[in-house]
Amino acid sequence: MRLSQRLTRGRKAWSEPPFWSLDRLPMLGSAGVLADREKIGNDYEGYVRGAYKSNGIVFACILARQLVFSEARFQWQRMSTGRPGDLFGTPDLALLETPWPNGTTGELLAWMEADVSLAGNFYATITDDAGHFGKSATGPGRRITRMRPDWVTIVLNSQSGDPYALDTKIVAYVYEPPVTAGLRSEPVTLLADEVCHYSPIPDPEARFRGMSWLTPVLREIEADKATTHHKKRFFENGATPQVIVSLDTDDDDTFQQFVEMFRRNHRGPDKAGETLFLANGADAKVVGADLKQLDFKNTQGAGETRIAAAASVPPVIAGFSEGLQAATYSNYGQARRRFADGTIYPLWRSAVGSLQTLLPPPDGARLWFDPSDVAFLREDRRDVAEIQQAQAMTIRQLVDAGFDAASVAAAVKAEDFGLLTHTGLFSVQLQPPGSGQTTNEPGQEAT
């Protein structure tokens, strides 16, 4: 029996009900864990349609992450005695520079960020024009192929068959797209070392899959959509507070005619601000509050901030109202540093570790990212220059004190003074009186 048949035999059917309803939100649970396999823990299409494509706050957070994350380039980095060294390139990196025909490194990173935000996981493998996958894809047209996360199943194995046993490990990934237009593709089974699996936020209810940052703030997203809908209805109803109109009549026909006339003449944003004229004993009373009285801006702004916090994006970076209220140049610089150091750099580190599966590094090196051309980090270059200036002063002082220049450079770079070695030579100021020998003019005696 083929490996793919053995791995998919006895597979249990699994699906989730429609996601985007409040009754569904608390039910995210561990429905994606099926005996010896794991799927993503949420409805991917529900997140895409219910949040990404229909909520401006979620879209802005993901876009802010994408725009910076996709700017990095990939290089090899030498490793010497466990310490990172200089960056260098080889022709093998062309696979990441052009991951698919007409594709770019930035597009690959943008897809990685989108899938991780919406599904918690990004999967990819190598294919070629001959229809080979994984390590067997060595022919013409070799390229990286994204695997839609909700069509991927992680297959687990342990000696006991228990997915929660300590010896459980990933043995394969099964990619199984649904039937489309009456056509069904055969499931493709790939071994663990043939798939790039990028999942920077772990799902505590699973062993190996990741979790979307949207999951903890689903209620906030739904509340933001509700407030936006409320604002829309406010303007549709005349951009005025709620009004109760009482009419002194017992005739139902007269009452209905008055209601229709009132709605026709006084409802809608184009009727806002007009003078209200009433007759036949009609009386109008305001019972609602306008957006200012409801403190609408702060109410919606608080939800925006909570969503941005889950995305690890400072509100001022995403352009949200609460962030802009307190924004100054200094605050923006601090927010930019927080976003770069606390969000983007960790994501880059996790991404290169995952991509190494598809592109094994040369001996003594690792795949790494090069952020030197990222415009968002340009101000950080000044900080780097200041650090290098301080390091240069330290190197000068240590060399003047008699330490070996090569060991000084290594110690300062590694921030480990235990690497210093001394030459045995000291500066003149440290010599005991009379121990030195001076050079005299010709014809004079040595003193």
From TrEMBL:
Q: Specify the domain of life of the species encoding this protein.
A: Bacteria
Matches recorded under InterPro entries: Phage/GTA_portal (IPR006944)
Family annotation (Pfam families): Phage_portal
Protein known as: Phage portal protein BeeE
